[in-house]
Amino acid sequence: MGEVTLPRRMFLWCMAVIYMIAFVSLYVQVPGLYGNEGLLPARWQLRYSGKPLLEQLLSSPTLLWLGPRLGLDTHTAMELLCLAGAALSLAATLFEALRHSLVFFCLWALYLSLYQVGQVFLYFQWDNLLLETGFLCILVAPLTSFSGPRVFREHDGVTFWLVRWLLFRLMFASGVVKLTSRCPTWWGLTALTYHYETQCIPTPLAWFAHQLPVWWQKLSVVGTFVIEIAVPVLFFSPLRRLRLGAFYTQVLLQVLIILSGNYNFFNLLTLALCLSLLDDQHMAPDARGLQSWLCYLVELGVWSLLIFGTIVCFDLQVDATKNHVLSRTAFTFHQFNQFLKTVTIPCVWIGVLSLTWEMVTSMFRCACVSGFLRRFWRMIQWTLVATATASVFSISLVPFTYIEYDSNARLWPGVRQAYDLVDRYQLVNSYGLFRRMTGVGGRPEVVIEGSSDGVTWTEIEFMYKPGNMTAPPPVVTPHQPRLDWQMWFAALGPHTQSPWFTSLIYRLLQGKRDVIELIQTDVTKYPFHLQPPAYIRAHRYRYWFTEPKADGSRWWRRVYDEEFYPTVHLGNTFLDGMLNQYGLKDKSSSRRLPNTTAAQAVRWLRSQVRGVPAHTLIWTLMACSATFCLLQGLRNRNRSSQGASLINPDTTTSKPDTADDVDRLLEDHKETEQADYEEEEDDVSCRDENDKEEGNDPVDDNSEEEELEEDKMLDESF
Question: What CA–CA distances, in Å, run from 269 to 21, 79, 109, 132, 265?
Answer without folding.
Answer: 11, 24, 18, 11, 6
